[in-house]
C-alpha cells in the first residue's frame, strides 16, 4: 500500500504508523520524504486473519502450499455455531442414508478421528468415517 501525504498531516500519521508497527500490526514500514516535501509511506499490514490462518493451516515446504490442519485444542474451539458453519461450508445431507456428511478430504485420518471423538464427547454426536468412494456409490 502506498500513500502520498501532505505536510500538515505528516506528524500525526507517523505517530499512528509507528504505534501500529510497534504493536506488530504492520509487518513492513518504509517512510520517505520526497524533494517536493511529500511523504511517501509504503507498508504491509498484518490482518486479523493472519492469526486465524496460522492456527488452521501449516505450510508444506515441499509443495509450497498451505495445508488445512485440525488444532490439538479443537475441543476448546468447536462450538455449536462452529459446527453449523462447518456443515454449511463443507457438508451436505445424504438422502439415501438420511445422514449429514461433512467432507474432510484434506485432513489426515488421525485428525478425522480426533474430530469424531470431540463431536461425541462434547456434543454427543455420533460420527463415522466413510470413504469418498463409498459416498460416490450411494449417489
Can you offer a commentary on this structure?
- There is one protein chain.
- The chain has 139 residues and is of the alpha+beta class.
- It has two domains: 2-46, no CATH class; 70-138, Endonuclease I-creI.
- Helices cover 42% and strands 25% of the residues.
- It has six helices and seven strands.
- The chain has helices spanning 10-22, 48-56, 74-77, 80-90, 109-123, 132-138; strands spanning 2-5, 26-33, 39-45, 57-60, 65-68, 91-94, 99-102.
- The protein has a three-stranded antiparallel sheet with strand order 1-3-2, with helices on one face.
- β2 (26-33) and β3 (39-45) form a beta hairpin.
- 1% of the residues are buried.
- The model has no long low-confidence stretch (mean pLDDT 78).
- Mitochondrial DNA endonuclease involved in intron homing.
- The chain crosses the membrane at residues 12-31, 69-88.
- GO terms for molecular function: endonuclease activity.
- Residues 47-133 form the Homing endonuclease LAGLIDADG domain.
- Keywords: Endonuclease, Hydrolase, Membrane, Mitochondrion, Nuclease, Transmembrane, Transmembrane helix.
